[in-house]
Amino acid sequence: MGAYILRRILLIIPTMVGIMAISFLVVQFAPGGPIERIIAQLQGSDVSATDRFTGGGGDFQGVGAEGGGGGEATSAYRGAQGLDPEFIAQLEKQFGFDKPPIERFGLMLWNYFRFDFGESYFRDISVLELIAEKLPVSISLGLWMTLISYAISIPLGIRKAMKDGSRFDIWTSGVIIVGYAIPGFLFAILLIVLFAGGSFFDLFPLRGLTSDNWSVLPWYEKILDYFWHLALPLTAMALSAFATTTLLTKNSFLDEIRKQYVTTARAKGLTERSVLYRHVFRNAMLIVIAGFPGAFISSFFAGSLLIETIFSLDGLGLLGFESVINRDYPVVFATLYMFSLMGLVVNLVSDITYTVIDPRIDFETREV
């Protein structure tokens, strides 16, 4: 097992390089960029943008179209005609665009391997501090949604497998399908209308993870306040989250229940509970565990953007979206790097968990 883990860890390096290379290449051909954004702000007479990106002492007359650099300038940037070429060169140097793409990519990889993500282009804060600031929201939503969905899905899936074809199985399947078909953001709006002061009841808050007076509350009230704020977002996100896992669990258990070793165990006089949890459970849960890393990682950002926006939760989903829109490349690449790395590590942990549940699995004999 040790050799397999070592191979997987070494494989992470070229995988991460490939992910970052493809993303970097896409960005090179994507229209727009941070320099174009600043030019657009300047052309719109956003004088504060000049101060922000010239060290605070720049004068728009000195770098702009009115008397700073002379005549028309030919530039590769849209809307840059009339701006001082020296100002454009200064922006390129500040953002690192004065270097060739290969050099920029190599420097980015070297920094990222040391977890040095630099600073945000448009916020006066380092990328790590910015991510750390938004991380509690995403961890709260992702972790609790995953735990709640699995806590519901696994027992329900086992029960449906044991009651296959019964009324219980039929009506629960109907509820699951309907829940899966309802978009989470529409259900979130419905929850706001019903329970958050929309038109009926005003029972739940709509902003943040905690109340303004959270710091002065007793510890038990802090816990209640925290889950009070999470109640509606988690309900909206988990509505369809448990559908796939429930049906996966049911089908996995049905496949195992129909196998010969289960019939043999029953013939030996073992109880249904003993057959289920001593023999079937270990084999049936392997496929469910295989889906855990994807569910765990996707819960941090897949589908959370709209929920974070609707409930005014400033997490990584909203941060990533705003960074793409604003062409804040350090934040975009840093979040991509961290989530990709987290996904690869969690997949490795999932494989190790396989061997814990079923020691018969031997990854040493399997090629990576």
What does it look like?
This is Microcin C transport system permease protein. Belongs to the binding-protein-dependent transport system permease family. Keywords: Cell inner membrane, Cell membrane, Membrane, Transmembrane, Transmembrane helix, Transport. It is a multi-pass membrane protein. With 368 residues, this protein is an all-alpha fold. It folds into 2 domains: 67 residues, no CATH class; 235 residues, MetI-like fold, CATH 1.10.3720. It contains 17 helices and no strands. The longest helix has 36 residues.
Shape: globular
Order of secondary-structure elements: HHHHHHHHHHHHHHHHH
CATH third-tier fold name of the largest domain: MetI-like fold
Structural class: mainly alpha
CATH class of the largest domain: Mainly Alpha
Could you tell me the mean pLDDT? 78
Tell me the helix content: 55-70%
Question: What does the largest sheet look like?
Answer: none
How far apart are the first and last residues' alpha carbons, in Å? 12 Å
Gyration radius, in Å: 27 Å
CATH superfamily of the largest domain: MetI-like
Q: Using the 3D structure, state the CATH architecture of the largest domain.
A: Orthogonal Bundle
Query: What's the number of structural domains?
Result: 2
